[in-house]
Design a protein that fits this description.
The complex is a heterodimer.
Chain A (H helix, E strand, L loop, with lengths): L2 E3 L3 H5 L2 H13 L15 H6 L2 H15 L4 E4 L2 H9 L1 H8 L2 H10 L3 E3 H8 L12 E4 L3 H7 L4 H7 L5 E3 L14 H4 L1 H18 L3 E4 L2 H13 L5 E4 H6 L7
Parallel strand pairs in A: 1-2, 2-3, 4-5, 4-6, 6-7
Helix pairs in contact in A: 4-6, 4-7, 5-9, 6-7, 12-13
Chain B lengths: L10 H9 L2 H27 L7 H16 L2 H14 L3 E5 L2 H14 L4 E4 L3 H5 L2 H7 L3 E4 L2 H8 L16 H11 L15 H18 L2 E4 L3 E3 L4 E6 L3 H7 L3 E7 L3 E2 L5 H12 L7 E5 L10 E7 L3 H5 L15 H5 L1 H6 L10 H12 L5 H5 L9 H5 L6 H15 L7 H13 L9 H14 L2 H4 L12 H8 L5
Parallel strand pairs in B: 1-10, 2-3, 2-4, 4-7, 5-8, 7-10
Antiparallel strand pairs in B: 5-6, 6-9
Classes of the chains: A alpha/beta, B alpha/beta.
Chain lengths: 246, 482
C-alpha cells in the first residue's frame, strides 16, 4: 500500500512538528509514508471564502499529486473534509469531466489521521506514552463533515500516562472557521472565549485537537491569557513515547 | 409602532455592537441553552423509540421528502391548492412581491372599513412589513402572540423566528408592559410582577378585548395542503386560534413554498416541527381550515399566495433546498454565532443560519453589502445541518452563496481580498512556482496583512514561525531518515 502524507499548507509552514509526528507515528506502525513534494494546499480557504475559480488550479494540483496513491493521510479533519466533500464542487465549477472523475476517485482515499489509524490500520493503541493531563476538543469538520466520532478519544484513552479530562460543551465550535476568524473577528473571539473558559475549567495542561487551524485560534487566546495551557496536535501526542515527545 | 431592519449595517458591524451587550449575551445563552436541551431530549426519545421505523433520521428524511415532492412540481401543486380553496369558498390572490401582497391586504381591510386587525404570529407578514403598510393607511395591526406583542409594545424588532423576544428577560418585559400597554388598550395592572404567569395574565386581559372587537384577522400558515385546500397554523398559546375563529373576515398570507401536496404529508412535518422548535412532542394548538364553513368561523376567507423571491430561490440548484424550511428555529438555537450575536445582527426577520441563506436567496446577492455579508456570518461548523428537521444542508448552501457573492463582484475593481486569493491560486497551483516551502509562510502572512492581521492579533497571539518548514525538514533529513 502506497501511503502519502498530505501535511497541509498550515502545517508545512507553521507546524512542521505535526508533520514530523505523523511520519514518526506511521513508521512506528510499519507504514512507509511518502511525502510527495508537489503538494501545496487542499484549496479550502478559496472554496470556503467563495473563490471557486481560484480553487480550480489548486484542486487540480491536489489530485495530480495524490491520485496515484492507495491512501492519503492528513493531520487535519478540515482539509480531509474539503478533499472528500468539496473538491467535487470545484470540479463541477471547472466543467472538466476528467478532473471530476479524478476527484471522485481520489476523494475517498483521503483519510484524517484518526480515521486512518482506526479504520485503515485497525489500531487504537499506537504505543504512545504522554504523561500529561489532556482535554480534547473535537473540531467541527472532523466531527460533522467526516464523522470521526470517538476515534480520537479511543486513541487517546490508550496512551499510557495520559489523564483525559472531559471538555464541557466540547462539540460547540471554537470560532475559528477559516476566514471567518478575520472577517467576523469579534464573533470568532467571543466563541473562542467560551471555548477557552471551558478548557481552563477542566484543569488540563494540554488542549488536544486534530486540526492545527483551530488550535492556532484557541491556542492564540490561551497564550494571550498566559493561561499555562498548551495547544498540542493529536498527532504529536500519539507520536510521543518513553524515548521522548517525538 | 414597529422598528425596521431597513438600513441595518453589514453583519460584522452589527455583531460587534450586539457582542458588547452583556444582558443580551446572558439572555441568549440561557434561552438557547434551555431550548437546545429540551429539543435534544425529545429527539433522543424518538431515536431510542423501539416502535417500528420511527427513528429521528427516518422522520427527517420523510419530512424533507414531503417538502421536496411539493417543490419539484410547485406550479401544479399551487394550482391544485387554488382550485381546492376556491371550491371551498375562499378567494385566492397571487402576489409577486411584498408591495402587491400588502396592497391586497390593505384593500380588503379598507373594504370592510376597519381601523384595526388582529394578527396571528406569522413570519411572512413580518417579511413583507405588513404592519407598516396597514399603519400607513390608518389601520392598526395588533400582534397577538405574546412574544410578538412584547416586541410590538417595545417598539422593537424580532430577533428569533419562534421566540421573537428571546433577547428580553422577564424584568424587561414587565417594564415594557407597564410603560406601553395603556396607550394601546387595556393597561397592565399596577401591581404587575415579573412572574411569567402574571405577565401572561396581563397580556391575556389586554388581548382579549382586541379579539372580541376585531372584524378582520390576519394570519400566515405553516402549511397549505393542496388536495384539500386546507391551511394549517401551529401554535402554543391559542391566541392564533382566537384570531382564526372570532373575526368575520380572515386574510392569510402564505409563501408559495408552504404547499404540501396531500393531507398525509402533514404527518412527518407535524411530528418534526414541535420537537425541533419548542422542544415539545406536540404543540398545544393546531388549527386547520379549508375555506369557509357556513355558520362557523370567518365567513369571508382570503388567501394571498406570495412569491417575493421564492421563485428566485427555487431556480438556484443548490439553494432551493432552503425552501423546505418549516421555520422551526432549531438551527438558530444550536448556532454558536447566533447564540452570541442574537438575531438583530442579521438585519432581517429571518436570522441565524437559515436567515444567512434565505435572505440572499430571496433577495439576490451583489447589490447590498448587508445581504452579501450574511453568507459569511458562519464558522461553517455544521451544527445547523445536524439539527435541521428537513435536512437543509445549510453549510453547503452558505459556501455556494459565498461563491455567488464573489462571482457577483467579478469584473469590477477587485477588492484586496480578491487579489490576495488570485495570488494564492497562482502560488498554490504548483509547488515549483511556489518555490520553496518557506515561501508559504510569507504567503500566509501576505494574505493575513491584506485581510488585516490586526483583526487576528487584537485578541489572539500568532504562533512563532518555525526555523524550517516541513518540506525543508523532509529534504534536509531525507524524510527524517538521516
Amino acid at each position: 500500500m502506497r501511503v502519502a502524507l498530505m501535511v497541509t499548507c498550515i502545517n508545512d509552514a507553521l507546524y512542521p512538528g505535526t508533520g514530523q509526528a505523523v511520519v514518526t507515528l506511521l513508521r512506528r506502525l510499519g507504514v512507509d509514508v511518502e511525502f510527495p513534494e508537489s503538494q501545496t494546499c487542499c484549496a479550502q480557504p478559496m472554496v470556503n471564502t467563495g473563490y471557486l475559480d481560484e480553487a480550480v488550479p489548486v484542486v487540480r494540483n491536489f489530485v495530480d499529486t495524490f491520485a496515484g496513491y492507495d491512501a492519503v493521510v492528513t493531520p487535519s479533519g478540515s482539509c480531509a473534509g474539503c478533499a472528500r466533500h468539496q473538491h467535487s464542487i470545484v470540479a463541477r465549477r471547472a466543467g472538466d469531466a476528467s478532473l471530476a472523475a479524478t476527484v471522485e476517485e481520489t476523494a475517498p482515499k483521503v483519510h484524517e489521521l484518526s480515521e486512518f489509524l482506526v479504520d485503515v490500520l485497525g489500531v487504537t493503541d499506537v504505543g504512545a506514552y504522554y504523561p500529561h493531563t489532556v482535554t480534547y476538543h473535537p473540531t467541527c469538520h472532523s466531527l460533522r463533515m467526516l464523522g470521526v466520532g470517538d476515534r480520537p478519544l479511543r486513541l487517546l484513552r490508550h496512551v499510557r500516562g495520559l489523564t483525559l479530562c472531559e471538555l464541557p460543551d466540547a462539540e460547540q465550535c471554537c470560532g475559528f472557521g477559516g476566514t471567518f476568524a478575520v472577517k467576523n473577528a469579534d464573533t470568532s473571539v467571543a466563541m473562542g472565549a467560551d471555548k477557552v473558559r471551558h478548557v481552563r475549567g477542566t484543569g488540563a495542561e494540554v488542549l488536544a485537537a486534530g486540526d492545527n487551524s483551530c488550535l492556532t485560534h484557541i491556542g492564540g487566546l490561551l497564550t494571550r491569557q498566559q493561561s499555562g495551557v498548551r495547544a498540542v496536535h493529536l498527532a504529536e501526542i500519539l507520536a510521543a513515547t518513553e524515548d521522548g515527545e517525538r | 409602532m414597529t422598528g425596521t431592519f431597513v438600513g441595518m449595517p453589514a453583519f460584522p458591524a452589527a455583531a460587534h455592537e450586539a457582542l458588547g451587550n452583556a444582558q443580551l449575551r446572558h439572555n441568549l445563552a440561557h434561552a438557547t441553552g434551555t431550548i437546545r436541551a429540551k429539543r435534544q431530549r425529545l429527539v433522543d426519545e424518538v431515536t431510542l423509540s423501539l416502535e417500528g421505523n420511527s427513528d429521528w433520521e427516518a422522520l427527517r428524511l420523510a419530512g424533507a421528502g414531503v417538502k421536496e415532492s411539493a417543490l419539484v412540481d410547485l406550479a401544479t401543486h399551487l394550482e391544485r391548492l387554488e382550485e381546492a380553496l376556491t371550491a371551498n369558498g375562499a378567494t385566492v390572490h397571487w402576489a409577486r412581491d411584498a408591495a402587491e401582497a400588502n396592497a391586497i391586504v390593505v384593500a380588503i381591510a379598507k373594504r370592510h372599513r376597519v381601523d384595526e386587525v388582529v394578527k396571528v404570529k406569522s413570519m411572512v407578514t413580518q417579511e413583507i412589513d405588513l404592519n407598516r403598510a396597514l399603519e400607513a393607511e390608518g389601520i392598526a395591526a395588533w400582534e397577538t402572540d405574546l412574544a410578538e406583542l412584547i416586541v410590538q409594545l417595545g417598539d422593537d424588532l424580532p430577533s428569533h423566528i419562534l421566540v421573537p423576544a428571546i433577547h428580553r428577560n422577564r424584568a424587561e418585559i414587565r417594564e415594557i408592559f407597564l410603560a406601553r400597554m395603556a396607550a394601546v388598550g387595556r393597561p397592565a395592572p399596577d401591581d404587575l410582577s415579573d412572574e411569567p404567569a402574571v405577565l401572561a395574565a396581563a397580556a391575556r386581559a389586554h388581548l382579549r378585548e382586541k379579539f372580541l372587537r376585531a372584524k378582520v384577522g390576519v394570519s400566515g400558515a405553516n402549511f397549505a395542503v393542496a388536495d384539500t385546500g386546507t391551511l394549517v397554523v401551529v401554535e402554543s398559546e391559542g391566541n392564533g386560534r382566537m384570531c382564526l375563529t372570532l373575526p368575520e373576515v380572515l386574510v392569510s398570507v402564505v409563501g408559495i413554498e408552504k404547499v404540501v401536496p396531500t393531507w398525509s404529508g402533514l404527518d412527518p412535518l407535524l411530528r418534526l416541527l414541535p420537537r425541533s422548535s419548542t422542544g415539545e412532542r406536540m404543540n398545544p394548538y393546531t388549527s386547520t381550515w379549508s375555506g369557509i364553513t357556513p355558520g362557523d368561523g370567518p365567513q369571508e376567507v382570503h388567501v394571498v399566495l406570495l412569491d417575493n423571491g421564492r421563485t428566485r430561490a427555487l431556480a438556484d440548484d443548490v439553494g432551493r433546498q432552503a425552501l423546505r424550511c418549516i421555520r422551526c428555529s432549531a438551527c438558530l438555537n444550536v448556532c454558536p454565532v447566533y447564540e452570541r450575536t442574537g438575531g438583530h445582527a442579521y438585519g432581517s426577520v429571518y436570522p441565524g443560519p437559515i436567515g444567512a441563506i434565505l435572505n440572499p436567496l430571496l433577495r439576490g446577492v451583489g447589490h447590498d453589502d448587508q445581504v452579501d455579508s450574511l453568507p459569511y456570518a458562519s464558522s461553517l461548523c455544521g451544527a445547523c445541518f445536524e439539527a435541521c428537521p428537513v435536512r437543509i444542508d445549510i453549510p453547503s448552501v452558505l459556501v455556494d452563496q459565498r461563491a455567488k457573492v464573489v462571482d457577483a463582484h467579478r469584473g469590477g475593481v477587485p477588492k484586496a481580498e480578491a487579489l490576495a486569493f488570485r495570488g494564492a491560486a497562482v502560488a498554490l497551483s504548483d509547488s515549483r512556482r511556489l518555490g520553496l516551502g518557506e515561501r508559504l509562510t510569507g504567503l500566509g502572512l501576505k494574505v493575513g496583512r491584506r485581510f488585516g492581521a490586526s483583526k487576528w492579533t487584537s485578541a489572539r497571539d500568532l504562533p512563532a514561525a518555525p526555523p524550517e518548514s516541513f518540506r525543508q525538514w523532509w529534504k534536509r533529513t531525507d524524510g527524517g531518515r538521516s
